[in-house]
Amino acid sequence: MVFNLSAPREEPSSSRVIQSRFIYFLTAFGLSWLFSYFTALAEVSEGVPDVPIDYSLTADEWWGKHPLNPARTGDAVEIQSPEPVVALQPSGPSLQEAIDSLPSTGGTLRLAAGTYEGGFEILNRANIHLIGEGEAVIRGSENFVVGSSLNHDYGAFCEAVFHQNPAAVKALRELPTHNIYFKNITFEQSPVRLGACRSVLFDGCTFHQPENRDEGAVDGNGKKVLRWYRPLPVTGIMGIRGIWFRGCEFSGHHANAYYLDGVQGSGAIQCTFAGADRLWSNAILLFTNDDLSLDITGDGNLDPWERRDVRYYVVDGCRFGGGYRRGAIAASGRDILAQNCEVDGKLDSFMVINAKTSGKEIYYEAFGTIARNNRLEGVQAIITAEGASNRPEKGLPDWWVWTKYEIGKFTILNNRIGPEAKPLREVPRDSEILGPHRIEGNGPQGG
Predict the structure, then answer these.
(1) d(Cα 174, Cα 283) in Å, to the nearest integer?
(2) Alpha-carbon span 351 to 374, nearest angstrom
(3) Considering 73, 285, 311, 338, which has the largest number of Cβ atoms within 10 A of its Cβ?
(4) Whose CA is closest to 350, among 329, 373, 333?
């Protein structure tokens, strides 16, 4: 084809100009939409997302932007695992030997189907992924995901932080153990302990704690007694952020499915908590780690991340069996979001939000909790708000008065409940449950 640049140029008509511009707009818009669509379908995260918390956001705003929110893409984000990838057999090296053999940059262990006896410790490491192939079961021992060897002993770790032990302070400040991923693994009577860590994801895992009793135990007087052992499947304390459960199942005999103390920026997504007997208190237990609410940076201020109250916690699309002694979720904290959940059976409260007082002149707040679009026909109350008592606890001196705690400002929207259930039950004690609340659309037709 030859272009004659010297030939007279025909000026296009205005109608042709409009038509060409319209076609260009449709083409550009269509390509952009298709690119966005297929990018969303194939969204992959390089490791477990480590998302800094913007403390100016509401819980709703925070979760709306989070990469693990399935509503962002319509599907679960795929986690990309690091190299090298090592295949492991139950008859081969132990889990601990396999983890220790990975390079300092991390790696992935693919566990063949079978039972792996003995526990493991991931200590001050990053980028460690354990992925089950088939029915991979870890059984019989405690497992640790921690940033410091001091995290094995809560008292020792707190004392080390109080005395400005450099290693303990660094572990609490940096949470060095991160990007830890467990997928398609069953933890059978094999509890996991977390401390000084961040961006940890349990994906499609099963936690089962069978009935365990010691019929040969004796008390201090030599009398034979029956003792029951029910360790929690997962416990986290001493600095934890970004601890996630996605598509997991909890069953068996234990007081709580998991207990996280001072956790922030974390949650449970599309998990199942099996029905409970009277031995259970709550499925999810979230406390404030007041002992470690400290000015770690030494700048004279207590920054939000230094305050070890529960903040920015989401429970989205989970299913709870009935029978918990107190409720499905119990927490002392703020900016907690529970949505799209379902309770099967009877339950006193869906959520119990209680006050956390401090003997260190720290004022905690329990504001910003949201419960919406849940199906809760068998509950007596959607949220039970428990104020604090300022009376000294047993064993404390008479002059000891806990710092007052502020609680309230709940949002309770469009939950399906029975005609006699209360959206909000207030138990003020020595506190006041503060408003305003937003309570709308709850009833037999809600949710």
Answers:
(1) 29
(2) 11
(3) 338
(4) 329
Number of separate helices (H) and strands (E) present in the chain:
6, 37
Q: How far apart are CA 155 and CA 159, in angstroms?
A: 6
192-195 vs 234-236, strand pairing mode: parallel
Q: Count of CB atoms within 10 A of residue 189's CB?
A: 18
Each residue of 292-317: pLDDT tens digit? 999 988 898 999 999 999 999 999 99
**3-state secondary structure string, 173-194?**
HHCCEEEEEEEEEEEECCCEEE
The pair phi, psi for residue 292, each rounded to 5°, is: -105, 15
The rounded mean pLDDT for the chain is 85
The model carries a pTM of 0.86
Q: Cβ distance 395 to 422 under 8 Å?
A: no
Query: Of the candidates 342, 352, 338, which has an alpha carbon nearest to the alpha carbon of residue 413?
Result: 338
Which helix (H) or strand (E) is 154 found in, with range? helix 154-162
Distances (CA, A) of 21 to 10, 17, 25, 30, 31: 18, 6, 6, 14, 15
**Tokens coding 288:** 């404030």
Confidence of residue 17 (pLDDT cuts 50, 70, 90): very low
In whole angstroms, give the CA distance from residue 310 to residue 36: 35
Cβ(328)–Cβ(350) below 8 Å: yes
Per-residue pLDDT of 206-219, as tens digits, reads 998 776 555 555 55
Tokens of 226: 């029956």
Q: Distance between CA 367 and CA 58 in Å, rounded? A: 10
Contacts by 55-60 with C-beta closer than 8 Å and gap 24+?
55/304, 55/311, 57/312, 58/335, 58/368, 58/370, 59/312, 59/313, 59/314, 59/335, 59/336, 59/337, 59/368, 59/369, 59/370, 60/337, 60/370
* H or E, element range at 206: strand 206-209
Q: What is the pLDDT of residues 415-438, one digit of tens each?
A: 999 999 999 999 987 778 999 999
Burial class (CB in 10 A: 0-12, 13-18, 19+), 12: exposed
